[in-house]
Amino acid sequence: MRGRCRRAARQPGNRGAYLLLLSLSDSTTIAVGGLGRLQFRCGNYIYVGSAMGGLEARVARHLRPKKRLHWHIDRLLARASIVGAVMFPSRKRQECSLAKTIHKSPKTAALARFGSTDCGCPSHLFYIGKRPFGGMLRMLDRTQIGGPGPSSRGWAD
Q1: If pLDDT is split at 50, 70 and 90, which confidence band does 129 have?
Q2: Closest residue by Cα to residue 82 from 47, 118, 127
Q3: DSSP letter, residue 105
Q4: Domain locations in the chain as residue ranges
Q5: Of 153, 19, 157, whose CA–CA distance to 97 is shortest?
Q6: pLDDT tens for residues 18-76?
Q7: What is the pLDDT of residues 76-123, one digit of tens each?
């Protein structure tokens, strides 16, 4: 008789979308795969990602200093500091909804196609300059994006 392995049921808290709150101390140019060499201004950035197979594990991977460079964000993380992460546990895909909400925010610049080559969004990386993250996070908390709302890790005004 052959034994069967069953995959553990995915829990709602184990998948969803997340934000990485990033700070870049100096302007720089970075080669980002098929996007080519991109200019990054010093200041604060918000990256929107999704992890439908392991939310906490994906965020933990981004926090590791040494990792295989796989996604666009990995190239930027080699130079930028992660100020914090915000997780949005959900069974539904929210990455694009979050990106669209951030993109509509005044004084926010999208970096064309960064992190969004597999969807129709203009970008999943947004430059917010020297503005603090708190205002953007409060705005996202007020929007109706579904799910139980954000779970923050290490962010403040």
Answers
A1: very high
A2: 47
A3: S
A4: 12-143+148-152
A5: 19
A6: 999 999 999 999 999 889 999 999 999 999 999 998 999 999 999 998 999 889 999 99
A7: 999 999 999 999 999 999 999 999 999 999 899 999 999 998 898 999
Integer angstrom CA distances of residue 132 from 13, 58, 100, 109, 128: 27, 24, 19, 15, 8
Under 8 Å CB-to-CB from 4, ≥6 apart: which residues? Answer: none
Residues with Cβ within 8 Å of 34's Cβ and at least 6 positions away in sequence, in order, are 117
User: How crowded is residue 18: how many other Cβ atoms within 10 Å of its Cβ?
Assistant: 25
CA dihedral of 47, 147, 101, 154, whole degrees rounded to 10: -40
DSSP 12: G
**Would you tell me how many other CB atoms lie within 10 Å of the CB of residue 122?**
15
Residue listed under structure tokens 């040494």: 66
Residue 128 φ then ψ, to 5°: -120, 10
Name which of 74, 80, 124 is nearest 101 in CA terms.
124
Please state, as a whole number, how many other Cβ atoms lie within 10 Å of the Cβ of residue 29. Answer: 10
